[in-house]
Specification:
- The protein is α/β, with parallel strands linked by helices.
- It is built from nine helices and 18 strands.
- It has helices at 16-32, 55-64, 74-79, 92-104, 119-132, 146-156, 197-212, 331-345, 353-372; strands spanning 2-11, 36-39, 42-51, 70-71, 83-88, 108-111, 136-138, 163-171, 216-224, 229-231, 237-239, 245-252, 257-263, 274-280, 283-287, 292-296, 320-321, 376-377.
């Protein structure tokens, strides 16, 4: 077996998502399994180079995972001709500049989203990377979750007939930080630092809707800052300047309508932190992160509205669970594998910086829609 090493500069892996999902559960998990089998007796071996601003934290992280390469000098890492890929999981305001430097250095780019602070910059990054001839990809992890993969299987099999509507519920209660520590960093609630649930979640909803049901053609959104005062990581109070909830209506190419609520101020009364209900002429489904339940039209009950008598049936029990029928790996790891195969084998890959720009576009238009109180068309983007 021949080993082919790919060196990856990983910037921002001291953060929660960069560390847990990208470093530990993706790159290190690939190493633990002996590398990525490329076929023909060849294995890809990912070699991470940790990049960040805080030297003690980087050193401790490297030591914890038995890694030897880390640096606080991004330019020096990008100048290293042995580094093949640049990965970015930094806070949003720092991302575009770092990607631009990586593109200039000729590195392949894989990045978290949103890719930039506004659409013009996101499109510029996509065009720069394409013009440079490098390979580029954007994390679109929800597509690789077991629940949505089962949903995709239903769509591909024609289960729904004509899709009529999609209803999404996402969120949970993020503690304010005074009497219980918050589960999300304080910058998420400061617009001046790139925070806000629209910028965070609308890019996700764009690719989920686009890939599964069709391109988003219009958006109407309402946003709110339900909790205006929070406490940061040092117990210091601050005013929340970014929205913590967004309520969006999205028209889709083909006529279906999607309604998605996103909130960090909602207590969970559903089976998973995110659920999508899809209703079609031939059947319906409810998909979460892992599970997916269906109700075909031939098995749809005939409830009758009567508020004067107690409900005698369990509506949840009338749905059928979709079996796994496959082993589902971590969604982040699954997409990393596809991107690395794209880099070394030139296999097809379309979740690129242009796809990332679509997410930035929808977030930008969603905020504008909320500010202006009207529905906005979503123009189709081209490279």
């Amino acid at each position: 077996m021949t080993r082919r090493t790919v060196r990856i500069a990983m910037n921002g892996v001291t953060g929660r998502m960069g560390h847990r999902q990208h470093l530990v559960r993706s790159i290190l998990a690939l190493r633990e399994q002996g590398g990525l089998d490329l076929g023909n007796g060849e294995t890809l071996w990912p070699e991470p180079v940790l990049v960040g601003r805080r030297e003690p934290v980087l050193r401790a992280l490297a030591e914890r995972h038995g890694l030897t390469e880390w640096s606080t000098d991004l330019d020096a890492v990008l100048a290293d001709g042995t580094v093949d890929v640049y990965f970015d999981a930094q806070v949003t305001p720092a991302r575009a500049d770092a990607i631009r430097r990586a593109v200039a250095a000729g590195k392949h780019v894989y990045t978290e989203k949103p890719t930039a602070g506004d659409l013009a910059e996101a499109l510029d990054l996509a065009r720069l990377a394409t013009g440079k001839g490098i390979k580029h990809g954007v994390v679109q992890d929800k597509l690789f979750l077991p629940g949505l993969r089962k949903l995709k299987r239903l769509i591909d099999g024609g289960f729904f007939g004509e899709v009529l509507s999609v209803r999404g519920e996402f969120g949970y209660w993020v503690f304010e930080g005074d009497w219980q520590e918050a589960q999300r960093p304080s910058w998420n609630y400061r617009a001046e630092d790139g925070g806000g649930i629209v910028v965070d979640m609308f890019p996700h909803w764009e690719y989920v809707l686009h890939e599964l049901f069709g391109r988003v053609t219009s958006v109407s959104a309402h946003v709110a800052t339900h909790v205006p005062r929070r406490w940061d990581e040092h117990g210091k109070p601050y005013e929340a300047t970014a929205e913590d909830a967004a309520y969006g209506v999205f028209e889709l190419e083909g006529g279906a309508v999607a309604q998605i609520n996103s909130s960090w101020t909602v207590r969970v009364h559903r089976d998973e932190l995110v659920e999508f209900q899809v209703d079609g002429t031939h059947g319906s489904a409810v998909a979460g992160l892992r599970g997916c339940r269906v109700q075909h039209r031939s098995a749809t009950p005939k409830p009758v509205w009567n508020p004067d008598i107690p409900v005698t049936e369990s509506f949840r029990d009338q749905w059928q669970e979709i079996p796994d029928n496959a082993d589902f790996d971590n969604g982040f790891k699954a997409q990393w594998e596809l991107f690395l195969r794209h880099v070394v084998l030139d296999e097809p890959y379309h979740w690129d910086l242009l796809a990332g720009a679509r997410g930035v576009q929808l977030a930008e238009l969603g905020l504008r829609s909320a500010a202006e109180g009207r529905r906005l068309e979503v123009p189709e983007l081209t490279g």
